[in-house]
Amino acid sequence: LIAPVITAGCFLSLYSAGGCDFVRVDVGFTPSNDSWNTSTVELGLFFYQSGIQGTNKYRAMFLDGCRPYTDQFLEEFVQDDRTWQVARIMAYVAAGAGILATVTAW
User: Fold this and answer.
1) Per-residue pLDDT reduced to its tens digit, 54-78
2) How far apart are CA 8 and CA 13, in angstroms?
3) What's the predicted TM-score (pTM) here?
4) 66: which residues sit within 8 A by CB, 6+ positions away?
5) Fewer CB atoms < 10 Å away: N or C end of the chain?
6) Are 18 and 95 in contact (CB under 8 A)?
7) How many CA atoms lie within 13 A of 42 on its CB side?
8) pLDDT at residue 25 above 80?
């Protein structure tokens, strides 16, 4: 009975870490830089909301509009942010622990 609960927790953890709405911000003005130029932003740990529908219908069911960060965005906004890096590392650790717990439970 415990294995299905652990498996569900693992999948929910993977889904939440892979989403693109971890942080939602309305900055109130339109930035004038090349990396980001909209007044609202939806960021995840690994993806951002682009507003463009994807062509893969299976991925679109879960992560519609989510795109990986561009190198320029990572260099300007994420590279020097240690808390962002720690959050990403902890997402990897949680995913690994969830998968290990699921494999062990079954």
Assistant:
1) 777 777 777 777 788 888 878 877 7
2) 9
3) 0.67
4) 18, 19, 20, 44, 47, 48, 49, 50, 54
5) N
6) no
7) 13
8) no
2 with 18: CB under 8 angstroms? no
Quickly state the pLDDT bin for 33 (edges 50, 70, 90): low
> From residue 100, how far is each of 43, 49, 97 by CA, in Å?
28, 30, 5
Q: Could you give the CA distance from residue 21 to residue 72 in angstroms, rounded to a whole number?
A: 20
Structure-block tokens of residue 76: 């300007």
